[in-house]
Protein 1
Amino acid sequence: MLISERLLRNYVRQILSEEGMIDKIMAKLELAKSQQLAIFKRQVNLGSPGFVLGLYKPNVFVGHVLSSLSDDLSSYDVETIQQGVDKSIVGVIGMRRALDPSHGAYEVTNAASTQGYGPMLHDVAMTYSTNGAIVPDRNAVSKEESSLYRFYMDKRPDVEKLKLDDRDDPHTPSREDDAKLWKDGRDHLNFAYKKPGAIDVKELESNHKNGMSSIKKYMSKLGWDEETIDDILQTATADFFSKIYADVKEEDR
């Protein structure tokens, strides 16, 4: 069968667009590395076991911690530290073990970012998921999140799409794919998305460790331990998410 030149051009344009987006995500990862951004992971319970991933600027955080200390290191200014942490956060994704089987995927919750790091963070989320798969939040999805998953569905041939089955009216014999479905026409939210292979985030993880090492010698004097730092960063990511979506109505999420 002959393919018209117009169809061929459109096909090539589509392929280049898809490859271009993948290249942009990898370029964003390289930019994060060049900006010496860091990733931290904190185990939390989000209705089921899970964790929070935070993308942040460790130099900003460390700088505010050091500037908050008194000359004799006997005290520190909490407000200065909190302001510094708030300014350091670039993005956050909460992930939890999905409440339904959902192909064994982790459910993404509380995702927010600035500076265009959202798509990269979702690819990173797949790296941290036990089996490389994620599903959208089953209760609230912002318009931006919905658009991102639509792109996964339509424009990411490198990402595997695993259809979810209605837990309340199952159509497949296996329970492995059962999940609470979105029934508002956004069918792209009713898939688990799985990316074969991991994104290399070792440098971003290392940046976090190095940042923490630079203030470690002050921590004992302040009565801090590593959990204290994790608490501060986790609180900051929660504040970051709240500020991003402060004016978003529930029905728009």
Note: The first helix runs from residue 5 to 34.
Protein 2
Amino acid sequence: MMDIYFDDEDLEKLFQGERLKGKPLYQDAVIQKFKKTVLKLDQFSRMEELYQLKSLNFEALSGNKKGLYSVKVDSKYRLELTIERIEDNGLFIKDIIRIVRMSNHYS
């Protein structure tokens, strides 16, 4: 399985089931879908396998987001992430996912 880390502390807290202080950033239904999406990512060993699960809509981003990838959380939100490949003498060891942010796909 891939190692998954969070660059966004609030997303990490939400994933762990903690409530954030202040006005909620996301509705409960979005938080549940976010958690399910992260758990789906955890099922795979390699980046290439993410393409197999069509519901993730895994894609490399371009333009000012070049170097990032995204997966679909729901029709409005997506997770933006980086993937670091670890190799030893050209042999695959593992991929590491860093979840950068959850963005509104249409804003």
Note: Residues 15 and 35 are 6 Å apart (CA to CA).
